[in-house]
Design a protein that fits this description.
Layout: E1 16-21, E2 24-28, H1 35-48, E3 65-70, E4 73-77, E5 80-84, H2 99-111, E6 121-127, E7 133-136, E8 148-154, E9 157-161, E10 171-175, E11 180-183, E12 192-194, E13 209-215
Antiparallel strand pairs: 1-2, 2-11, 3-6, 4-5, 6-13, 7-12, 8-11, 8-13, 9-10, 9-12
Bound molecules: N-(carboxycarbonyl)-S-(naphthalen-2-ylmethyl)-L-cysteine and fe (iii) ion.
Amino acid sequence: MNGNLFDDNICPRPPSVEHLSEGAMLLRRFACGNAAAAVQCIYELAKLSPFRHMVTPGGHRMSVGMLNCGLVGWVTDRSGYRYQEVDPEHGLPWPPMPAMFREIAIGAAIRAGFQGFEPDCCLINRYEPGAKLSLHQDKDEATFDAPIVSVSLGLPARFVFGGLARNERPRRIVLESGDVVVWGGPARLAYHGVDTLADGEHALTGRCRLNLTFRRARA
Ligand code: MD3
Ligand code: FE
């Protein structure tokens, strides 16, 4: 029954909004209503372009599994980080970005005050227990004018975010399924990362966290 939309373990509480810093806004549970469909979309995309553990230029295998959809995709290998039009796994274009993904991203950007966001890339990160993403900046894009929109699905994770200098003491927030963060303007080049994922079980994803990162990679 649907007496209370939030009365279940998929979306236990109503949405809310938090300002994290100048340009950064956390839209708690913004994507709860689309979360189950988004997870299904991801499993369909993974049939066309599998999750893979890419290698950094320094030769380390990333613990996060990744795939892309959209016009371009973010990749890394021994020769560096970059965006490219084709999936190195098979040399074909990345799967198109599902319309629902685009609508979530644009809707969140507007809610955070960024009109006109047109993402050309959606990186899909898969964290299994033990996976993490070290502190970094997103700076492989051709423009930093557009915001970045991040959608969390499945198991909760501790997200780490600092300032524009690596040595600034970072803050930590727990991101849960359906939470969306928008980073733009002065927050666009902030350092950020994800702490080692704790084990758990989630109704939508099982023992895993999925994250959609929407970016404008080409000017
Ligand atoms: C803060 N992914 O793929 S996106 C990444 O949860 C990445 O998988 C994280 O960082 C994840 O590069 C979080 C959140 C994010 C993205 C870009 C940012 C936070 C940001 C840019 C500036 C500041
Ligand atoms: Fe990042």
